[in-house]
Amino acid sequence: MTEPDEALGFAAECDTPIPYMQRIRAYYLALGYEKPYRWAQYADVPFTNFSKPLRESRIALVTTAAPYQADKGDQGPGAAYNASAKFYAVYSDTTDVDPDLRISHVGYDRLHTTAEDMNSYVPLARLREAAESGRIGGVAPRFHGAPTNRSQVTTIERDCTEILTRIREDDADAALIVAN
C-alpha cells in the first residue's frame, strides 16, 4: 500500500469483498447443473407496509437453520459443510426457549466466519428482548424452519405457502426471515 493510500485509510488492495454470487454460480455448474444458479429477483417486490406500529406488532421468525440431528455427523459451529443435516419439510417449534439449531447444512464462508453465535441465524433471544423492552409488540408463539433444498419452485409453491399459513395461524403481523 502506498503512503497516500495509507494516509487516506484505504484498505489493502487484496482486502476486497468475496464474490460469493459468482462462486455459487460456478459451483452449480461444477455440480453438473445445465445452468448456473439464478437468484429470485422480482420486478415488483411482494412486500406490504405495516398495518400498525412495530411496537404493537407480533413478529414471527423464519430461519433456514436445521434442528440438530445427532445421527447426522458433525454439525457444530466449526463443522464442514454437512449435506446430511439438511431437512426437506417445513417445521415449527416454540419461541419460549432457545432451540438447538445448526447451520452446517448450508454453504457459507467458513474461512472468515463461524456459526458460534446462534443469534446470527436464530435471533429468538433478541426478539424476546425487543418484546420485553416494548420495541415490538410480541413474538409469535412459534418460529418456522424453511428448507434449503435448492428448488425455487418447491420453495415458492410449497414451503412458502406452508410457512405463511403457519404465520397466519400464529396471528403474526410480520415475519423476520433469517436466511443462512
Percent helix = 10-25%
Note the gap between the termini: 34 Å
| Biggest sheet record | 4 strands, mixed
The main sheet orders its strands as: 3-5-1-6
> How many β-strand stretches?
6
**pLDDT averaged residue by residue:** 89
Helix and strand run: HHEEEEHEHE
Strand content: 15-25%
Judged by helices, strands and strand pairing, the structural class is alpha/beta
Shape: globular
Radius of gyration of CA atoms, rounded to a whole number: 19 Å
For the record, the count of structural domains works out to 2
Count of helical segments? 4
Low-confidence stretches: none
Describe the model.
- The protein has helices at 3-7, 20-30, 124-132, 152-169, and strands at 58-63, 66-67, 91-94, 101-102, 138-145, 174-178.
- Helices cover 24% and strands 15% of the residues.
- The strands form two sheets. It has a four-stranded mixed β-sheet with strand order 3-5-1-6, with helices on both faces.
- The chain has two domains: 1-39, no CATH class; 54-178, no CATH class.
- The chain starts with a helix and ends with a strand.
- The relative contact order is 0.21.
- It has 180 residues and is α/β, with parallel strands linked by helices.
- It is globular, with a radius of gyration of 19 Å.
- The protein has four helices and six strands.
Keywords for this entry:
180 residues, 2 domains, 4 helices, alpha/beta, 6 strands, 15% strand, 24% helix, two-stranded antiparallel sheet, four-stranded mixed sheet
